[in-house]
Structures are given as structure tokens and as C-alpha cells.
Fold this sequence. Notes:
This protein is an alpha+beta fold.
Amino acid sequence: MPKKAIVIGGSIAGLLTARVLSDHFEEVILIERDKYTDDAKVRKGTPQANHIHLLLVKGKEILQDFFPDLERELIKNGANKIDFLNDGRFYLPSGWAQRFESGVVTFTCTRTLLENTIRHQVQKISTIKIQDNKAISSFVLENTNKISLKTIANEEIHADLIVDCTGRNTKTPDWLENIGYPKLTETRVDSFVGYATRRYIPPKNVERTWKMLAILSNPITNPRLGSIYPIEDGKWLVFLSGIGKVYPPTDEKGFLEFAKSLESEELYDAMKDAIPDSEIYGYRVQGSRRYHYESMSSWPENFMVLGDAVAVFNPFYGQGITSAALGVKVLDNMLRNQNFDKNLTKKFQKRLAKTISLPWILGTSEDLRWPTTVGKRPDTITKMVQNHAQRVLLLGPKSSLATKSFLQMMHMIRSPAVIFHPLILLQLVANSIWKRDG
């Protein structure tokens, strides 16, 4: 068993990576730049934590595999267990999606509660040592094609394996280039997304048939979408988003007016009498970005990158946490089934690239529907699949099979083949004939 592993970055991806490495290394050190606290405050390094962080079912399943007590602890601390179609109400460009028990079940809460709960589980593992309030400043190249870390305090740290989980603000591309590795290639798709979120206390004595509400945008006529997302203590996060530089305002009047301009006024009607419980937090996403570590001609023998440090997604589909979890699952499988040799890290980056290809395609497909988006357009086959997926989504008001299949694909519990079910294809043909004859 290798002796020492280091994880840089202590958010959800880093915590999960440390948990997995504890099964394969004698000692795991998790280094986090911020100071951890146990309260509900958002860490300085995660300003996006003020907004909705959707945990897809596949991600939930992976987290529960590694942390069997996680769901119980989350529910005890106020998280909500919901069936997406039975408890959620979704307005599509074609109308309201059907509602029924789908079995697509996860829990909803703030990003901070999820991260803190995972961290408490990690802290129970004696071989993991957490060093917070500590920052890395650069990489140092060793003689054996390995790297070590240098801290701001000029301390040099060596390990058998180093994993970068520092997220969207990773410095790895620059630090590798500074010590002689090739310049990294990247792919960017920027749809100029911005969002604004506020926490609310729901009005009392109001009958509702839903726990979660979402009003989707309508390509390409209405770039606005919004959601009411249940969190702990019975509160809501009201999330508004716009694409193509249609940024939701962060002032009281503008926030409400933006909510009223969604495809349905049901979200506005639900929130207008709710009690604000926070300021309005704005955030502008610098596009979807993917670093192609898998194509590097040379690569350190003791270094890996995963999570948002590899690929950052448009938050529309909530894929970030689950994509990181999928990457950690790949890492665990490789460490269990292969020898820890000098080729392992390079093989991991190649396998990770294949794993995140599907969420990348799904995550950028919505962006590329908008003419204002900057980025390479998909090839013909990918575009056909994307267009088919959109048609399946629009069947939501008429077809429970199409709705459930689309949701299973988006939650990564079924492959995209599920939306090509013969009955769905027949329903699409029938819908096309109905529209033509209508």
C-alpha cells in the first residue's frame, strides 16, 4: 500500500477524494485554503454556495456508497427527501410536465449543509488529516517526473500521489507550465449565464401541491428561468437565471419583476408573499470550461486532477457534484484493480475524460441553443441527439414515459439510449402528425 496521498482543495470533490484514498493509502492529507467552520455561513472560496446545488440521483448514490450515514445525517439536519416528479412541478416550453411517483428520489438542502455533513463523515476516518487555512503557492518538479507542493509559507510537501480538487479557480494549468510541462488545451462554451438567489420563509397557511417548482426558459424567445428549491428549516431558495447576458437584477424591485417575466407567473405568485430571509446574491458564470489533461504529451507520475478543476458546467443541469463523484468512482475502481505505477495517473486522466464526456454534452447542449452563445458548435450526430432530447422533453405534458426517461438520463441513472425507447419514438411521430393536422 502506498504511504502518503495529498488532496488539494477541501470542498465536496476534495472531501470525497480523501475518503476514497483512505482505502488505498496509509495516510491522506487534505489541504484547504479556507478556514472551516461548522455554522451555515458560506466559505470565502465558494461564493457559488449561496445558490442552488442540485444533487442528482447518481451523485447521491455514489455519496451514499462511501458515506452510509450521510442521508440520515442530512435529514436529521433538515434536508428534504423528494421525488422529482411527484414532489416537483415543472413548466416546460410545451406546458406543465406530468406528475407521478417516478422513483427518481434525492434530497435537497444548501450546498453548505451538504459539504459540512460530508466533512463530518470524513473527520471520523483516522487516517485522514485535514489541514485548513493553508494555501499552496506552486508546484516543484522533482528529478523523477514527479511533483511536490510548495506552500505560501515556503514549505515543500512530498507525496506518493497528489490530487488537485481546487475547483473552477485551479492554478494547475499555469503551475504545470511554469515547471516545464506543455501548455494545456481547453474547450470553452460561454452562454453568458447569470443568476440571482434569495432565501425566503414561505408564507404560512397556503395550500401547495408541490415541494419544488421550476419554470424553464423557452429557446429562443425567453431566456429566463426560475426555481423554488426547498432547503433546511422549511425555507426556500428562490433562484432566477438568464442566458445571453439577460442577467437577473439583485435589487428588490428588479428581482420581483424578473420573476414575473418567466414563462409562467406561478413562481412569482408563490414568492411574492414569502418573507425574505437573506440578501439577493448575484453570480455570473464564466461559461462552461473543460481542460484536456488527457491529451497532454507528458504528465507527472504522481499527480491527478478531477472535479471542477477539470470541467466546469453550466449550472442549468446541476451536474457539478455528480460529475465529480463519477470521477472519484473511476479513481477508486482504478486503485482497486490496477497496480499503483507510473502510468496510473495518465491513464486516470484519459478515463476521466471519457466519463465526463456525457455530462459535458448534456450540459453544453442547452447553451448552444442560443445564438448569443460563444463556442464550437457540435458535430452533426451530436446535434441530432441534442435535438431529439429536446423533443422528448417537450413531450412532458403528454407522456409520462418521455418525462421519466428524460429525467433518468439527466440524473445519469440511465444512458441516453433510454430516450430512444420505441414507444417514445412512436409518441414523437404521433405528436408531429397531431401538430401538422392541428
